[in-house]
Design a protein that fits this description.
Order of helices and strands: EEEEE
Helix content: under 10%
Strand content: 25-35%
Oligomer: single chain
Shape: elongated
Number of helices: 0
Number of domains: 1
């Protein structure tokens, strides 16, 4: 098995050559991630966006800074 590429901060990175998959170490950097859908109201007052990585298909929610 090929290890994930690491960036200058020694964080694992999802790349087309070696996409992240369930069971790999976390947290991982998804440099090609993009927002999908509309912003949602968060609690307590922050907005939340849905993110998706086109390289590995992982989806998650992220709170935007206020």
């Amino acid at each position: 098995m090929i290890d994930l590429v690491r960036n200058e901060f020694d964080q694992p990175v999802c790349t087309p050559e070696r996409p992240w998959k369930e069971g790999d170490e976390t947290p991982v950097v998804h440099p090609k991630a993009r927002e999908v859908g509309e912003q949602m109201d968060g609690w307590p007052g922050g907005d939340i966006v849905r993110m998706e990585c086109p390289t590995c298909g992982t989806r998650w929610k992220k709170e935007l800074p206020q």
